[in-house]
Specification:
The complex is a heterodimer. Chain A is globular, with a radius of gyration of 13 Å. In chain A, about 35% of the residues are buried. Chain A has no helices and 11 strands. In chain A, strand 7 and strand 8 form a beta hairpin. Chain A is an all-beta fold. The model of chain A has no long low-confidence stretch (mean pLDDT about 95). Helix content of chain B is about 0%, strand content about 50%. In chain B, strands 2, 4, 5, 6, 9, 10 and 11 form a 7-stranded mixed β-sheet that branches. In chain B, strands 1-3-8-7 form a 4-stranded antiparallel β-sheet, with no helix packed on it. Chain B is globular. The chains are: A mainly beta, B mainly beta. The interface between A and B is medium-sized, with 24 and 23 residues.
Chain lengths: ~110, ~120
Amino acid sequence: SVLTQSPGTLYVSPGEGATLSCRASQSVRSNYLAWYQQRPGQAPRLLIYSTSSRAPGIPDRFSGSGSGTDFTLTISRLEPEDFAVYYCQQYATSPLTFGGGTKVEIK
Amino acid sequence: QVQLVQSGAEVKEPGASLRISCKASGYTLNSYIIHWVRQAPRQGLEWMGTLNPTSGGTTYLQRFQDRVTMTRDTSTNTAHMELRSLTYDDTAVYYCARGNAIYNDALDVWGQGTVISVSS
């Protein structure tokens, strides 16, 4: 399944919200869709699994939604540490695939 | 503290092989699937394959099928990934990551990454 993320870059002011999109080329079985955050020079970090469940320790300003082929990550109020690259991933079927990423930059 | 600790950066010549280790700490390697993911410079994430440490069974991305081997050593709680016949396109950061059934096998713990540079 090919995952297409949009936009490629999102410019947001601190304190504002952001909406990131991930579209799959075929339906993601059981909505096994995850979101990861990657800061410069760091490994990815799991934010959301199974479309909408937050991983432990993830602030509630991060939320995920969607089903089938269309998924969304919403960040309600951006903090300075949230400016990073975000990847969606489907892990329902092999091969696992990642989207190309959305970079969230400071406006 | 649960973590995956990877071996250090390496420089390899084209045609050589690499072998990266990924040591599980704070948990037993056998309890979770291990995935290998790589990231070329300024690029996104690419899944390479999985290792079931309990059975030793593997699943590889087709394009790596003939030159990758993923293994484990349960006595040292360590997974290994070997990639052969390196080309310049194999320059990347390589990550191991744990698939956790509690999160329906999403990747909840990642190694720090191993930088591999292929250069003559």
